[in-house]
Write a sequence for this structure.
């Protein structure tokens, strides 16, 4: 076993031990917190070094376990794709643990710390095992462990009705998503005669009906976890309910395991068919645009971030679709640009979305609310959180010189090359990526200007916001580290290239790194450095100009009105209104207002809610159909045990007859 | 070396007079004499020599807005070729970096606007965000049309190929790209029919209302950045419309004439058109997107190089 | 690839998009007339590439151009404008944002027709590659306008656009100008417009105005 794999595997007992210890110390919050966090930090650090080593050395190995399940040996392994996702998992989770040290210090109510850490460590372990697994059984077991541990984290604050609802919703979504996955592996494992990935890869003919069926099943099952439109509906419910260090991890890496699953399935299926790529591009466009539009419409900071995850998953899907189109056409440059861009965006989104969720957590911590229109003016009260949140906002809008730009740039370049080099029919599809990505970028910028501006800028809208304070040191460290990484990747993307080189080549099916990638990335460095220099220059010019001059402070200009109140500020709803106006036809817009009567109205109220189009118009009717269909089966369930036993007996008999009849 | 110096000289000297030219043209058409060509320059100098008044609400984000907006536009200006097919700071994929630099400037202008806590600025930022998001696809599609004949995503490659293969009138795709870019220019620089730079009512403004609270050097930075944006987007269109050769004298001359032509065109449009109602602006921009998309399709059908 | 034909066909698409994006009936009708004008110029641009030398074709061309010009660009638009004034409907009664959607949809239809053109009917050598897509796009947008029209008048305009598309595509597919086809098309248009215009007047009489005004329109419009 290589050092890399041993390090990664070694991190698992550390995490489990720490988690268990903290669960044992249930009654002693401080001790539980310290054990859980220290073990979490150690475990992720060890795992991170293992993953990094694996990436740099390009380790590829598979180890079969000593313990056996009835269905066969269980094996784990390391290859560049696994190492890359391990790197993302341990990095984001490590930052999450650092954040949790301070975050869990002051919990609202009488909640105990231990579950928040024990299940967190379990979540990290199960995510690591998901990507390490080299056979379907272990994969599905870890997948289920991941779902369950995150379910317990989502329902951490179970005293609230809304949280319990969100938890149940999430649990159902997870298990609905599991069904296609079980089907997928049964389908693939049956002809292979084994559930090992190696055997499946050898037995599956590329491009056949089986491969197509497998792809579609994977798209559904992993799509639910990743949050593709329209099966993203669980995301905006579950993410806001979880504690912030958990939402950061769930949104930052857990949903990316859906992407990992899809990519892993692709490696099992050999050369993909071109139309799979078209499907992913279409999904990407719809998820991206739909996600960001819904994000804009939100008034709850964490819901906004959750919808923005749907948008970013859409961008990743665009990259994957591009990669598949390139691969199917035998163009490894385009394939690398597509897959590489998608992978880079996986890492980048983990970083900045983690950072933003942590920022949202800090805001909640300081003010007790996530409602955008109750916040404001926090920049003065929480300068570090504010600066980190600003960095994250600019990064998620894909602006240079930050990391979000780099991943999108690779996808842009790949799409352009697709237009130039691929045949017309494929070229048109890759062409569609360009305006979609541009539109998504523009809307995301508007969305995060709104989020940052309404929360941190202007005047506080409530006393709670006015009384806000900067958060604990550890939380600040985690956020600043995240922001620093965002800047670092933006300025020196070559470093990140080292990380995606291996998995990108694996997915693109060619070991050669296309020269255009290094060329483009070094150009990014030049541009970023030039930009930073220019900003510094302009700032110092401004400083020199103002040094000897009179600089006064006054009230904001209001056409001569000298007593503006915070309530006069633009709210998040009014900001979003203009942007959403052209898209109004696709929203269910519920407005409930009244009270503005007479010349001197006393009280007035205005309440508006934008429904989720996918939930209202796709999932709801679909679920309605399903419920009425299952209603027909109601005769099966009548409450008598003997009746149930009859069904069991019947099933056994039918199965026996069917199986024996086949011989 | 000469090329670089000339590029820098133009970047420094020309944007403000170009803005002045627009005003002069508008005055002429209205039958007035108009301010001198260098009026914007005098304005900026005056602002640079002033002190500043900051709102008590604002933080460093407010001061960062003009600084970042100006420097990102300057970098965009260094990327775009001016009068010769290459630029001092061109690199591969600079077309996308160019578009995103404009986005960066906008992002910080919008955050700075929200930092004042005034409803006016919030309104402006919201409108800017909405319209910029719709203009973005048109910009990217138009830039795409520009780059496809060359097969590379940099202005240098694109403009080196354009004059040789076909000028504007030889290719309908390029014509549509120029049209879409024209709309993007009007939207990005907040000119009529998207926004009226001379309006006096805060409630109807877009760009002007976002920068209401800036004064002194900050406002000067904003004015310079604004003029630069017009100049930079203008030079993309000029290179697209006029096949500018790599020659050291005819190229720059054609470029100057083209920029003047754009200033005149903007002036004429402002004189003969009214501002669109705010709710109609999205349609104008969507129209530009569709036009650019048709341009790309035409390029596809016309046989790709 | 003939330049003039390309630009003219582009103009045809542009007019389609304009019609799809405006709600004012007068503007739509005038744009339709302009499209008729462009269509009339189209045979000239195409014949100009080389077939013009044959004597018989000149007569053909002149006849076709003249007929198109008179019918599509003058007679029918005037007729429609008059019907509009009589009926008093100036605007398509639609909320603002559905216009965004309609414009976007028109864009999608244009994209679709380019795709169909590329896949099904590859351009022959010597003819403009835009012919088939432009014709298809005009037909599809015309169909869309006819379907989505809320008033009879807008439906007639949509139908006109549709016929323009048939004109373009017929010309492109056949490569030349058989008089029979052309006359058939024109006849189609004429009959349809008459029928629908009478319908407009008929409903108006029922709903709004007095019977005398309507009778006058019928008398003036269908000699």
């Amino acid at each position: 076993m290589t050092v890399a794999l041993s390090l990664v595997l070694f991190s698992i007992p550390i995490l489990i031990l720490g988690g268990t210890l903290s669960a044992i110390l249930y009654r002693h919050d401080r001790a539980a917190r310290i054990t859980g966090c220290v073990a979490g930090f150690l475990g992720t650090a060890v795992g991170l070094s293992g993953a990094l080593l694996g990436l740099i050395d390009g380790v590829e190995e598979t180890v079969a376990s000593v313990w056996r399940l009835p269905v066969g040996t269980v094996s784990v392994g390391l290859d560049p794709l696994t190492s890359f996702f391990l790197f993302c998992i341990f990095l984001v989770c490590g930052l999450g643990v650092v954040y949790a040290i301070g975050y869990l210090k002051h919990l609202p109510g009488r909640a105990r710390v231990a579950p928040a850490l024990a299940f967190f460590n379990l979540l990290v372990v199960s995510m690591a095992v998901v990507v390490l697994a080299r056979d379907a059984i272990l994969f599905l077991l870890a997948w289920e462990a991941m779902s369950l541990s995150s379910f317990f984290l989502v329902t951490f604050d179970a005293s609230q009705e809304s949280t319990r609802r969100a938890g149940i919703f999430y649990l159902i979504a997870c298990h609905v998503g599991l069904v296609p996955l079980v089907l997928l592996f049964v389908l693939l494992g049956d002809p292979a005669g084994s559930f090992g990935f190696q055997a499946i890869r050898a037995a599956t003919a590329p491009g056949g009906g089986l491969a197509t069926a497998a792809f579609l099943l994977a798209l559904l099952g992993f799509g639910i976890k990743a949050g593709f439109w329209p099966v993203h509906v669980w995301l905006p419910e579950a993410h806001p309910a979880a504690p912030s260090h958990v939402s950061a991890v769930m949104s930052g890496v857990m949903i990316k395991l859906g992407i990992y699953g899809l990519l892993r399935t692709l490696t099992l299926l050999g050369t993909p068919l071109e139309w799979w790529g078209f499907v992913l591009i279409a999904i990407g466009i719809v998820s991206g645009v739909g996600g960001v539009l819904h994000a804009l419409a939100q008034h709850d900071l964490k819901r906004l971030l959750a919808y923005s995850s749907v948008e970013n998953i859409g961008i990743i899907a665009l990259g994957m679709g591009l990669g598949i189109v390139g691969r199917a056409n035998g163009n490894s440059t385009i394939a690398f640009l597509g897959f590489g861009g998608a992978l880079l965006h996986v890492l980048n989104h983990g970083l900045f979305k983690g950072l933003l969720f942590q920022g949202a957590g800090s805001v909640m911590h300081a003010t007790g609310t996530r409602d955008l229109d109750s916040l404001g003016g926090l920049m003065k009260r929480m300068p570090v959180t504010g600066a980190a949140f600003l960095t994250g906002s600019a990064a998620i809008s894909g602006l240079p010189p930050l990391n979000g730009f780099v991943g999108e740039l690779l996808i842009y370049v790949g799409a352009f090359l697709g237009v130039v080099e691929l045949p017309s029919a494929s070229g048109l599809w890759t062409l569609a990526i360009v305006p979609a990505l541009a539109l998504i970028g523009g809307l995301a910028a508007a969305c995060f200007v709104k989020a940052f501006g309404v929360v941190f800028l202007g005047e506080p809208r409530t006393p709670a916001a006015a009384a806000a304070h900067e958060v604990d040191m550890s939380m600040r460290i985690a956020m600043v580290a995240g922001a620093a990484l965002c800047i670092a990747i933006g300025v020196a993307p070559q470093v990140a290239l080292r990380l995606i080189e291996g998995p990108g080549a694996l997915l693109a099916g060619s070991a050669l790194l296309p020269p255009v990638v290094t060329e483009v990335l070094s150009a990014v460095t030049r541009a970023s450095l030039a930009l930073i220099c220019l900003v510094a220059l302009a700032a110092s010019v401004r400083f020199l100009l103002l040094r000897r001059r009179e600089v006064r402070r006054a009230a904001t200009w209001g056409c001569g009105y000298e007593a503006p109140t915070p309530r006069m500020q633009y709210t998040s709803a009014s900001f979003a209104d203009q942007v959403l106006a052209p898209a109004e036809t696709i929203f269910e817009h519920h407005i409930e207002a009244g009270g503005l009567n007479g010349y001197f109205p006393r009280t007035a109220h205005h309440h508006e809610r934008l429904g989720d189009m996918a939930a209202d118009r796709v999932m709801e009717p679909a679920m309605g159909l399903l419920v009425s269909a299952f209603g027909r089966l109601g005769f099966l369930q009548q409450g008598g045990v003997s009746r149930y036993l009859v069904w069991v007996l019947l099933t056994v008999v039918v199965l026996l007859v069917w199986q024996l009849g086949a011989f | 070396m000469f090329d670089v110096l000339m590029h820098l000289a133009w970047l420094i000297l020309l944007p403000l007079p170009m803005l002045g030219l627009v005003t002069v043209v508008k005055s002429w058409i209205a039958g007035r004499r108009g301010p001198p060509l260098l009026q914007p320059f005098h304005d900026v100098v005056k602002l640079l020599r002033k002190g500043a008044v900051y709102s008590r609400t604002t933080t460093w984000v407010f001061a960062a807005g003009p600084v970042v907006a100006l420097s990102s536009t300057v970098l965009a200006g260094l990327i775009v070729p001016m009068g010769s097919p290459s630029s001092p700071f061109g690199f591969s994929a600079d077309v996308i970096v160019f578009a995103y630099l404009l986005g960066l400037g906008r992002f910080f202008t919008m955050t700075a606007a929200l930092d004042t806590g005034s409803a006016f600025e919030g309104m402006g930022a919201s409108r800017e965000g909405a319209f910029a998001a719709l203009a973005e696809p048109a910009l990217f599609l138009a830039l795409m049309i520009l780059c496809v004949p060359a097969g590379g995503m940099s202005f240098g490659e694109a403009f080196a190929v354009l004059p040789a293969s076909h000028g504007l009138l030889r290719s309908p795709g390029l014509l549509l790209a120029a049209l879409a870019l024209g709309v993007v220019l009007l939207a990005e620089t907040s000119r009529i029919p998207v926004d009226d730079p001379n309006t006096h009512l805060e409630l109807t403004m877009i760009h002007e209302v976002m920068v209401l609270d800036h004064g002194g050097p900050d406002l000067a930075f904003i004015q310079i950045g604004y003029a630069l944006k017009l100049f930079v987007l203008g030079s993309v269109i000029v290179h697209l419309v006029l096949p500018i050769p790599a020659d050291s004298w005819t190229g720059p001359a054609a470029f100057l004439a083209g920029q003047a032509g754009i200033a005149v065109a903007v002036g004429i449009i402002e004189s003969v058109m009214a501002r669109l109602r705010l709710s109609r602006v999205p349609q104008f921009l969507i129209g530009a997107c569709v036009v650019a998309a048709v341009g790309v399709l035409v390029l596809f059908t016309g046989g790709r190089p | 690839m003939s330049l003039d034909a390309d630009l003219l066909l582009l103009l045809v698409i542009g007019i389609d998009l304009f019609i799809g994006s405006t709600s004012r009936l007068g503007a739509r009708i005038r744009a339709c007339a302009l499209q008729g004008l462009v269509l009339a110029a189209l045979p000239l641009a195409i014949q100009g590439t080389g077939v013009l030398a044959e004597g018989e074709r000149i007569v053909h061309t002149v006849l076709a151009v003249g007929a198109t010009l008179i019918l599509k660009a003058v007679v029918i638009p005037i007729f429609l404008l008059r019907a509009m004034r009589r009926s008093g409907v100036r605007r398509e009664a639609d909320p603002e944002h559905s216009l965004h959607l309609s414009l976007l949809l028109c864009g999608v239809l244009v994209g679709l027709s380019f795709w169909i053109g590329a896949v099904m009917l590859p351009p022959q050598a010597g003819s403009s590659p835009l012919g088939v897509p432009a014709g298809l796009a005009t037909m599809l947008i015309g169909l869309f306008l006819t379907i989505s029209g809320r008033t009879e008048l807008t439906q007639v305009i949509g139908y006109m656009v549709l016929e323009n598309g048939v004109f373009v595509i017929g010309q492109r597919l056949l490569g030349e100008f058989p008089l029979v086809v052309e006359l058939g098309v024109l006849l189609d248009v004429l009959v349809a417009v008459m029928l629908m215009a009478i319908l407009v007047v008929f409903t108006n009489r029922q709903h709004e105005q007095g019977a005398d005004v309507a009778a006058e329109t019928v008398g003036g419009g269908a000699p």
Q: What stands out?
A: Chain B has a mean pLDDT of 88. Residues 43 and 220 of chain B are 8 Å apart (CA to CA).
